[in-house]
Design a protein that fits this description.
The complex is a heterodimer of chains A (101) and B (209). By secondary structure, chain A is an alpha+beta fold. Chain A has a single domain, classed as Winged helix-like DNA-binding domain superfamily/Winged helix DNA-binding domain (Arc Repressor Mutant, subunit A). Chain A has 5 helices and 3 strands. In chain A, strand 2 and strand 3 form a beta hairpin. In chain B, helix 6 packs antiparallel against helix 7. Chain B is mainly alpha-helical and 209 residues long. Classes of the chains: A alpha+beta (101), B mainly alpha (209). Chains A and B meet through helix 2, strand 1, helix 3, helix 4 and strand 2 of A and helix 1 of B.
């Protein structure tokens, strides 16, 4: 394994929580807030904080709407987020070397 | 690194790339399953098919006017119209086209819709409509689509409806006399093997929960 230099990686994604959110959205593409909260076992405030940071960097889009009468917040990955995540994973995999694949 | 937020057991000091990759794999797997559990389409088509088959049965028994087009054309219009509305009302996910899970099972279900629609339209136009043929086509393509969905998402319980549609296919192909009771069978199959899985998916996805 080569030296794992975190400084070369995207700081926005590098947080464990945000990495988990981005990984989940890479395959789910979108999820409602409560499903994401349940999946990650986070509090509302904690998840909101991380989503805001991802949204500030245009990695996710957050849309508020209604499912029937109930308010629903939907989080979706963006093209920018998709590209940033792939770059991040390539960086981590490169640090691991051939054993990563 | 200044961020001190961690997810559950991980600590920043204990991080290594292998842990990160394991986390990525785990969350991507969870997301892949989530991608399959938006069951609104299944609920929509399951309910429409169940009602239509039952209406057709009532029509055959003269409780409703004798018509095929009068039942199935509105059903398809409602189904495709609602699909169009669902698509428009969803938030835009810009990068869906390169997600192999979504592309895989979306394509499989599109094949179901187009196959049945094309057969129905052409056979009605040419006067060659055959109830057994459309039943066989429907059950084969729906079963196939469930199989594809189960394979690409890794959601194991979806093999249940896959097997169920396989049985419907076998029965509709083999039964010597294709009579009006088959309409009841197909209405039941639509409810049990399409509507019900859709409701389960919707519940799992947390829609309306």
């Amino acid at each position: 394994m080569t030296e794992y230099d975190y400084r070369t990686l995207d700081d926005v994604i590098h947080s464990r929580v945000r990495l988990a959110i981005m990984s989940y959205l890479m395959t789910a593409r979108e999820a409602d807030f409560s499903a994401l909260k349940k999946e990650l076992k986070l509090t509302d405030g904690n998840l909101s904080t991380h989503l805001r940071k991802l949204e500030d960097h245009a990695y996710v889009s957050v849309t508020k709407g209604f499912a029937g009468r109930k308010p629903q917040t939907t989080v979706a990955i963006t093209e920018t987020g998709d590209t940033a995540f792939k770059t991040y994973v390539e960086g981590v995999a490169a640090m691991l070397g051939p054993q990563a694949t | 690194m200044t961020d001190t937020h961690d997810i559950q057991t991980a600590s920043a000091s204990g991080r290594n790339p292998a842990d990160d990759l394991a986390l990525i794999r785990g969350m991507m797997e969870a997301g892949r399953k989530r991608a399959a559990v938006d069951g609104r389409h299944f609920v929509l088509w399951g309910a429409l098919l169940m009602l239509s088959f039952f209406a057709q049965y009532l029509s055959v028994h003269h409780y409703l006017p004798p018509t095929i087009l009068g039942i199935w054309v509105p059903m398809m219009a409602i189904g495709w119209g609602t699909e169009f509305w669902l698509r428009r009302s969803r938030p835009k996910s810009e990068a869906c086209s390169n997600n192999i899970t979504l592309v895989g099972y979306s394509a499989a279900w599109r094949v179901v819709g187009l196959t049945v629609l094309i057969y129905f339209a052409t056979s009605i136009a040419m006067g060659t409509f055959d109830p057994r043929t459309i039943s066989v086509l429907s059950s084969a393509t729906i079963g196939g689509a469930f199989l594809v969905t189960a394979r690409v998402t890794g959601v194991k319980w979806l093999y249940g409806p896959t097997a169920g549609w396989g049985l419907v296919l076998a029965f509709t192909s083999a039964v010597p006399v294709y009579d009006d009771e088959m309409l009841l069978l197909l209405a039941g199959a639509s409810g049990l093997l399409l509507l019900l899985p859709g409701q389960l998916m919707t519940r799992l996805a947390g829609h309306g929960a």
